[in-house]
């Protein structure tokens, strides 16, 4: 129960520091883990109150902490399984008379972990996701799924395996009615259906948009809808293809934070694989990074494509190459690469990042940002 208590205390800390937006999202995550419909009803009522009285911050904090105290007394049915929900063994897929070949790839995907899938366009990210989702048949290899129940048909597998493509399908009717339709397929009573879908609507910031149609929502809110619909189905494996595409910076951060919270549920942990071009943002929330190059695989967090003994620094600055090289002249600079308007400086592994920052700080050059990418898959994208 230590993790549960830690999360309760984290929510308290957010509210004590007036960080009510993130605090409320974390409070709702704790509420969802209880699976208690009475708690759901209180969250739904508070969400409706908050929309009517947006300036009553102190009362909102008091009401939130009151619900949190109730949540803290409810036993949580913990799911601590660390078994792989998916094992891929030597899978491969070729196109156009083998002009492109994905794999062979072997990997294990576990609950409560986020796997970032990165690589340049055309290197097989979507193909890999579609093979894992059983939308494409691999040429070789096999997939083993180990969910909490056995499935006789691939159709039944969809209750625990969810794949969200980059271009989601258009739906008709209101957002709320579409979510209600999901639970109606699981035989949930009308009253419970209403409570559960309103809870999901509140959790994903869709309260103001619950009566809108598909054409009336932005890309960000369409993705939030997809996540709400997914969570209602309580899957064990979620595959997302470019969920951050067409989203602004703030929306990207919110979606990624939500994905991390979804995956780390104490009651229903989910294994998540997401592909994205937003490398740094994805790496921040990922437990592992799967890097694809020319269809070949590497776990960027565990087994890098190449052995890296260098300190590699990415620098965006307004200066000439010779000036930057002079600044680093006594730091065992091995190579200075200019790529896409950005410098990449390679140093001997004994050089510290702090010493590089000290040299930059002592110079007069204008620097937009400096980043240590020695252990980031970003280093594989440098030509």
Please, could you describe this protein's structure?
There is one protein chain. The protein is an alpha/beta fold. Helices cover 39% and strands 23% of the residues. It is built from 13 helices and 13 strands. It has helices at 2-16, 20-34, 37-52, 57-72, 125-132, 154-157, 175-184, 190-203, 219-232, 249-263, 279-285, 321-327, 353-361, and strands at 84-95, 100-110, 114-118, 140-145, 161-164, 237-241, 271-275, 288-293, 296-299, 310-318, 333-339, 342-348, 366-372. The strands form 3 sheets. It has a 6-stranded mixed sheet, sandwiched between helices. A hairpin with a 2-residue loop joins strand 11 (333-339) and strand 12 (342-348). Helix 3 packs antiparallel against helix 4, helix 7 (175-184) crosses helix 8 (190-203) and helix 8 crosses helix 9 (219-232). The longest helix is centred in the N-terminal third of the chain and has 16 residues, at 37-52. The chain is globular and about 70 Å long. The model is unreliable at 300-307 (pLDDT under 50).
Quote the beta fraction. 15-25%
Q: Could you give the order of strands across the largest sheet?
A: 5-6-7-3-8-9
Q: State the shape.
A: globular
Return Rg in Å. Answer: 24 Å
Q: How many individual β-strands?
A: 13
Q: Work out the helix count.
A: 13
Name the poorly predicted regions: 300-307
SS-based structural class?
alpha/beta
Q: Profile the largest sheet.
A: 6 strands, mixed
């Amino acid at each position: 129960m230590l993790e549960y208590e830690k999360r309760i205390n984290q929510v308290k800390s957010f509210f004590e520091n007036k960080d009510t937006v993130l605090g409320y999202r974390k409070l709702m995550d704790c509420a969802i883990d209880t699976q208690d419909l009475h708690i759901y009803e209180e969250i739904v009522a508070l969400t409706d109150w908050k929309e009517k009285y947006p300036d009553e911050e102190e009362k909102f904090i008091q009401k939130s902490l009151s619900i949190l105290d109730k949540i803290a007394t409810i036993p949580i049915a913990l799911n601590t399984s660390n078994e792989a929900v998916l094992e891929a063994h030597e899978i491969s897929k070729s196109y156009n008379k083998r002009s492109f070949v994905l794999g062979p790839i072997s990997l294990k995907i576990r609950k409560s972990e986020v796997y970032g899938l990165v690589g340049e366009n055309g290197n097989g990210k979507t193909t890999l996701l579609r093979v894992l989702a059983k939308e494409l048949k691999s040429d070789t290899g096999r997939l083993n799924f180990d969910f909490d129940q056995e499935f006789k048909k691939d159709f039944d597998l969809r209750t625990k395996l969810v794949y969200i493509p980059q271009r989601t399908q258009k739906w008709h009717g209101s957002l709320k009615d579409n979510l209600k339709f999901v639970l109606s397929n699981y035989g949930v009573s009308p009253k419970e259906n209403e409570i559960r879908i309103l809870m999901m609507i509140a959790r994903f910031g869709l309260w103001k948009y619950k009566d809108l149609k598909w054409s009336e929502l932005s890309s960000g809110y369409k993705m939030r809808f997809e996540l709400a619909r997914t969570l209602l189905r309580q899957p064990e494996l979620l595959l997302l293809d470019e969920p951050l595409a067409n989203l602004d910076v703030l929306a990207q951060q919110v979606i990624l934070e939500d994905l991390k919270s979804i995956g780390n549920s104490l009651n229903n942990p989910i294994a998540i694989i997401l592909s994205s071009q937003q490398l740094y943002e994805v790496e921040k929330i990922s437990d592992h990074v799967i890097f694809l190059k020319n269809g070949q695989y590497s776990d960027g967090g565990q087994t890098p494509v190449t052995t890296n003994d260098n300190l590699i620094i990415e620098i965006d600055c307004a200066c000439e190459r010779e000036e930057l090289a002079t600044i680093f002249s006594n730091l065992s600079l091995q190579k200075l690469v200019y790529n896409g308007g950005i410098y990449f400086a390679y140093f001997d592994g004994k050089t510290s990042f702090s010493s590089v920052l000290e040299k930059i700080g002592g110079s007069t050059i204008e620097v937009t940002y400096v980043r240590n990418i020695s252990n980031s898959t970003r280093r594989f994208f440098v030509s």
